[in-house]
């Protein structure tokens, strides 16, 4: 079996592995049809500790990357309800289900959390083993490449939930990458009145308005545009999806007094906060971490199945597993603005009937 394995910082290799064998109780073996690459993967690729150090290491050393897979069940372990041949999207969290946070349903905060592609083998492989519980069957009308975007869509669903969006709210999304473009769609579906996307790359701004944003502006124009839209008070909710301290600062700045700033971009940086003005503005700063298998993920899959969230326009590249380094990770690093969502097809292109579907919806 072929898999893209991380051996250390910026050292990803497509290698032959022994066959995976039968899944244990409660698990299934999937043939991976599609797996997205996202910003978090790039963070791991660039900044992960050596492969023999936690949290990257799988039990046996090098780690198969990929946390946005969709696949077909090819074998089920005991005590599994899924059927062989069923198509599923994979949520990805391997949580203990017994700790304080799991008992509250906050699975992403699990004391011993690992995820596919981060701490456990992921989906950039021809096949993978995964707990059945985090595999969600999806309708045959949804293409596997689109199902692979259930994971980032569920990130957006959670962030919108964390924002406690009120109907008619003015929302600003800082960062028009895949997550930002999904967020702007989900926020609109969940009642946002005005949606403004702030993004430096012109092509992404055009895409944002195609996907339903009311306004897409460059960062230097955003302050004025928001002031014009909101009688000078700022957005009810700002989502930070840029993943840099600077974009966090701007998101806070563009949030109105008494409004909410939701952080979901991944960054290692730090931010200085003027505590007096923060207090006087009574803003809320809320973090939103990934998703849950039982709430956010099913919501995302339904939004994709029903076509309420459009993902085909976000897919910039479809590549083979062998191209994962050159046309995937390194291409995204070399020319981040030239790509959006790169989807890897580890078992080759999807079958023709589905390709026809894609053209019809694309
Ligand atoms: Zn992701
Ligand atoms: Zn737990």
TrEMBL record:
Signal sequence extent: none
InterPro entries, A to Z: ADH-like_C, ADH-like_N, ADH_Zn_CS, ER, GroES-like_sf, NAD(P)-bd_dom_sf, Zn_alcohol_dh
UniProt keyword annotations, A-Z: Metal-binding, Oxidoreductase, Zinc
GO molecular function term, any single one: oxidoreductase activity
Highest rank taxon of the organism: Bacteria
Enoyl reductase (ER) domain residues: 8-344
Cofactor: Zn(2+)
PROSITE patterns, sorted: ADH_ZINC (PS00059)
Family that this chain belongs to: Belongs to the zinc-containing alcohol dehydrogenase family.
PANTHER family named in the record: L-THREONINE 3-DEHYDROGENASE (PTHR43401:SF2)
Protein name (database record): (R,R)-butanediol dehydrogenase/meso-butanediol dehydrogenase/diacetyl reductase
């Amino acid at each position: 079996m072929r898999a893209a394995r991380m051996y250390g910082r910026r050292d990803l290799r497509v290698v032959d592995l022994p066959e995976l064998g039968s899944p244990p109780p409660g698990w299934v073996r999937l043939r991976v049809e599609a797996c997205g690459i996202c910003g978090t993967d790039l963070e791991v690729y660039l900044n992960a500790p050596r492969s023999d150090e936690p949290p990257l290491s799988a039990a046996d050393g090098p780690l198969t990357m990929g946390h946005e897979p969709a696949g077909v069940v090819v074998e089920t372990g005991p005590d599994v309800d899924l059927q062989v041949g069923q198509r599923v999207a994979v949520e990805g969290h391997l949580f203990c289900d017994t700790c304080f946070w799991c008992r509250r349903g906050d699975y992403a905060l699990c004391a011993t959390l690992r995820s596919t592609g981060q701490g456990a083998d992921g989906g950039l492989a021809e096949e993978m083993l995964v707990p059945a519980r985090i595999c969600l069957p999806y309708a045959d009308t949804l293409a596997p490449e689109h199902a692979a975007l259930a994971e980032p869509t569920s990130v957006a669903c959670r962030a919108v939930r964390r924002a406690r969006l009120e109907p008619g709210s003015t929302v600003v999304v800082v960062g028009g990458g895949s997550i930002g473009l999904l967020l702007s769609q989900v926020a609109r579906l969940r009642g946002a009145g005005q949606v403004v996307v702030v993004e430096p790359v012109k092509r992404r701004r055009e895409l944002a308005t195609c996907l339903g944003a009311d306004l897409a502006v460059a960062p230097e124009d955003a302050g004025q545009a928001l002031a014009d839209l909101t009688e000078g008070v700022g957005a009810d909710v700002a989502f930070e999806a840029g993943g840099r301290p600077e974009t966090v600062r701007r998101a806070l700045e563009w949030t109105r007094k008494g409004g909410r700033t939701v952080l979901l971009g991944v960054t290692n940086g730090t931010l200085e906060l003027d505590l007096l003005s923060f207090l006087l503005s009574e803003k809320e700063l809320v973090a939103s971490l990934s998703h849950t298998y039982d709430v956010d993920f099913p919501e995302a899959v339904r939004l994709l199945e029903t076509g309420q969230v459009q993902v085909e326009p976000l897919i910039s590249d479809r590549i083979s597993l062998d191209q994962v380094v050159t046309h995937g990770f390194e291409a995204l690093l070399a020319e981040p603005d030239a790509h959006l969502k790169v989807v890897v097809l580890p078992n080759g292109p999807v079958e023709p009937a589905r390709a026809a579907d894609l053209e019809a919806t694309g």
